[in-house]
Design brief:
single chain, alpha/beta, Rossmann fold, Ribosomal Protein S5, domain 2, 3 domains, nine-stranded mixed beta sheet, four-stranded mixed beta sheet, 11 helices, 23% strand, elongated, DNA-binding, RecA_ATP-bd, zinc, stress response
């Protein structure tokens, strides 16, 4: 009898263990989470399970109406004044929308949102509330002065208590809300440290409910884990309307904002920013950051065009091949996947007869760009061939294509957009896989040469002689 009552009491209390990373619950302790597969994150102390709701507890605020009578003007996006961010959001911020902006520490999230808040306050003439839970008001004020974000309508509060934050929203009635960050705000009614699963879920739910009730756009800053994912429970990403990732190398000026979830616009757009001492500046044409116009006719260089979302970016790849004094030659990369380079070198050795097995190979991108798509395989291979033979490639050349293990070249997605970008930048010759474009559709002034395999592409590159690319 005692055992039966104990089991019934445990079932009434609900699961007693929960994962601090994703919120997964279990009736007993386990060493590994069954949802996110993390070790050592399941701890005791889950909230009691609530019973099913069978009756309406609150009256409806507005009756259900035919869909044709719904006012769509309230769902129109309002521009923020930052064109690159508006591109990612789908035109701007929608009233009542909640945006989660996540990124690594020091990438520039606070600087970008402070600039956005100031521009919204200036353009609308209304109040914008910026809540900082990580920095003091004086520190935020110094940054605002440095990036020229001192707007009269920009209200600043440094708070970490959820009740106090909601009180500021009630007192100021802002037209836009920024919370930096959601992991630093805690509720006194929920147990656990700030940033825990229960705290993040409660804080996010309260802020989202307030934004929906007031029809005020809210931007929440989120931390990321060591794997680059948004910290906190997975339900946080489901609760918000837009999830944006703020990416960038600490040693590079380029910053990218891409939407991984967007209920009001596309998810294949990318915003490009230049991080300077004066703040973050949107880049409508960032291709020049990844090219070195001062280097001409140097062996080991080749240009490709990558796609960031739907935006083509011209990127220069440099390679250096040198004799090795080691039994295991070095393979060093910067901005290129090392495993992808190893595969390309094996194909060059076996299919094209290029002796690189006993040589050190260094491959890097210009400007700190990161190239991860297979469309840059041909450019990497041609740069290595040029460096190994100490022969510069043809001037004005751009290369597109994926390299297979058999040495064949495979067409890439968006070849037309890539070639149009190459022609706009002044390139005069392009080497692409066979069948990449339809006959007669090549951009005017750009000679497109098709190659079936890697050996043929290397031969066409060495034999081509065209005028050099004009100076920018």
């Amino acid at each position: 009898m005692t055992t039966t009552r104990t089991r019934q009491n445990r079932q009434a209390r609900g699961p007693g263990f929960a994962c601090t990373e994703c919120g997964w619950t279990s009736a007993k302790w386990v060493g590994r989470c069954g949802e996110c597969q993390e070790w050592g994150t399941v701890h005791e102390g889950a909230a009691p399970a609530a019973g099913p709701r069978t009756t309406a507890t609150t009256p409806t605020r507005s009756p259900a109406r035919p869909i044709a009578q719904i006012d769509v003007e309230q769902a129109r996006a309002r521009p923020t004044g930052v064109d690159e961010l508006d591109r990612v959001l789908g035109g701007g911020l929608v009233p009542g929308a909640v945006v989660l902006l996540a990124g690594e520490p020091g990438v520039g999230k606070s600087t970008l949102l402070l600039d956005v808040a100031a521009k919204v306050a200036r353009t609308t003439g209304q109040r914008v509330l910026y809540v900082s839970g990580e920095e003091s008001a004086g520190q935020v004020r110094l940054r605002a002065e440095r990036i020229d974000a001192l707007a009269d309508g920009l209200l600043l509060a440094s708070e970490t208590d959820l009740g106090t934050v909601l009180g500021h929203i009630e007192a100021t009635d802002p037209t836009m809300l920024v919370v930096d960050s959601v992991q630093t705000v805690a509720s006194a009614e929920v147990e656990g440290a700030p940033g825990g699963v229960a705290q993040v879920r409660e804080v996010a739910a309260a802020l989202i409910a307030e934004a929906k009730r007031r029809q005020v756009p809210a931007v929440l800053v989120g931390h990321v884990t060591k794997d680059g994912n948004v910290a906190g429970p997975r339900t946080l990403e489901h609760l918000v309307d837009v999830v944006c990732q703020f990416e960038g190398d600490r040693h590079s000026r380029l910053r990218l904002v891409r939407a991984t979830k967007n209920r009001y616009g596309p998810t294949d757009e990318v915003g490009c920013f230049d991080l300077t001492e004066a703040g973050i500046i949107g880049l409508a044409d960032p291709s020049g950051l990844f090219l070195s116009p001062t280097v001409r006719d140097v062996p080991g260089t080749c240009v490709t065009v990558t796609l960031e979302g739907r935006r083509p970016l011209a990127t220069e790849i440099q390679a250096l091949v040198a004799p090795s004094m080691l039994s295991n030659p070095r393979r060093t990369t910067s901005g290129i996947d090392s495993s992808r380079l190893a595969m390309i070198l094996a194909v060059l050795q076996r299919r094209a007869g290029l002796p690189v097995a006993d040589r050190d190979v260094y491959v890097s991108t210009v400007g700190g760009a990161r190239v991860v798509e297979p469309a840059a395989d041909l450019a990497v291979a041609l740069a290595v061939v040029s460096a190994a033979q100490d022969a510069p490639p043809a001037p004005g050349l751009v290369a597109l294509g994926e390299v297979g293990l058999a040495g064949e070249l495979r067409p890439v997605v968006g070849a037309g957009r890539r070639l149009n970008e190459a022609q706009r930048l002044g390139f005069t010759r392009a080497v692409v896989p066979t069948g990449s474009i339809e006959p007669g559709t090549a951009p005017a002034g750009l000679e497109v040469v098709e190659a079936r395999d890697l050996a043929e592409a290397a031969h066409l590159t060495r034999m081509a002689h065209v005028p050099a690319r004009p100076e920018p």
